[in-house]
Every structure is written in C-alpha cells, then in structure tokens.
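Run log, item B.
One chain of 252 residues. Sequence copied directly from the ordering sheet:
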Amino acid sequence: MSRIALTTDIGEGLGRWELGDDEALLGIVTSANIACGFHGGDPSIMRRTCETSVKNGVSIGAQVSYRDIHGFGRRYIAVPQRELTDDLLYQLGALQAFAKLAGGQVDYVRAHGALYNVAATNTEHAQAIVDATVAFDRNLPLLCQVGTETWRLGEEAGLRTVAEAFVDRAYTPEGLLVPRTESNAMLRDPREAAERAVELATNGNITAVDGTSIHVDAEALLVHCDTEGAVEIARATRAALEAAGIDLVPLS
C-alpha cells in the first residue's frame, strides 16, 4: 500500500484576522505546516493550532519564512545567510515551545512563500534553511521539492529530505510552481485537485500549464489553507486517496 502525508499551511491568521478554516482542515489533514510568527501566526494562534494538531493526531511542521508580516512572507528579503539562519532558528524555537506545551513537538521543517520559492534556486538562502534545521535538530525531516537547491543542500548535510508536491498549485514545464501573480496559478476545483493528488501519489505524474506531462516526486501533498474552497479540496483529496488504497500518514 502506498503511503503519503496530506499537509496544509495553517495558523496563518494574526490577532483578530483569520485565514482559512483551521479547525476544519485539522480534522482532515495528517500534518500541519504551522506559521511561526514571521509571516503570519501570533503566539495565541500558534498555541491553539499546536493544541488542535496534537488532539487530532496531526504532526506539527514549522513553517518558517522571511521576516515579512506586512507582505505575508511573499516578498523576497535580501537578508544575509547568517542573519536568515538566526531568524529561522528563532521561529523554530517559538513553535517548539507551544508544541511542547500541547504535548507534542516540532516534527519537521518547511519554508513558506517567497523563501520557499527563492531557496529553490538561491544557494545562500537554501543553505540558511538547511543550517537552521541542522542546528535545531538534524534528525528533523526537511520538506521541499526534489531538484531544488534546498533539496540538494539538505541531502549534502545528511538531512532526511521529504518530497513535496502541491494539490492546488499549477506547475511550469520545468516542474516549479507558477507564480501566484499569474491568473492560472491556483486549482480551485475539488474534483480536479483530488484527481491530481491520486495521480501524484500513484504515478508521480502531473500536467503542467502548457499541457505537457511532467514527473513530480511526492511523499507529501499540500493544500493551502487560503485557497478558495480549501476545506472542500482537502476533503475531496483525502477521500480520493483513501479510495485509491493510499495510506495517509503523519509526516515525522
């Protein structure tokens, strides 16, 4: 039986503002990429999200980012490697505190937004992600895309890299994500997303925006909490994967 993690970016609200239906999503997914305060998520949201994750048997991932609250972590920040490493360590420590209070722990690491995309090709910022993970706990898995600088440097450092693919994002023919600024960047049809998830989990194939079929390795599938209809997409995806005989497991 195939095994795969179903993840979501979550806990990304701030103060009185909420982003997505966290409660519903945490009842569907197996793993939660929790915002650590630098692009979204405040201490109360981080604590509450960790508590719900532990209660539901959902593994906790540290979703680290550039220090960019105003831009939601979607803007490139030209920060030196050592400073970025320290920023990421700060976020890891903050989430670990709330995870431990909830009876859990940080189970893996994943970059968010612009940092995720920049580190795919930027060696300096990819190295910062790897260095922070190694310094914090080198036994933690690093969730990223195969073939990126993050993946390459993580492998070189001896980290367990976990191949991530996206249920609700469009892909370029090169296997990278279509920028969110483009109108065709997101998939919002639950049935289409669910069919893609099964294809990724069983064959590792996906159709790029130009119609070509490309191979994408996937040990974890992501549904963004801020995608329109995210709960319906996640629910349809889980149902389709289970119907295909795929075992959904927490990422740890």
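Observations after the first pass:
- The longest strand covers residues 3-10.
- The mean pLDDT is 95.
Flagged for discussion on Thursday.
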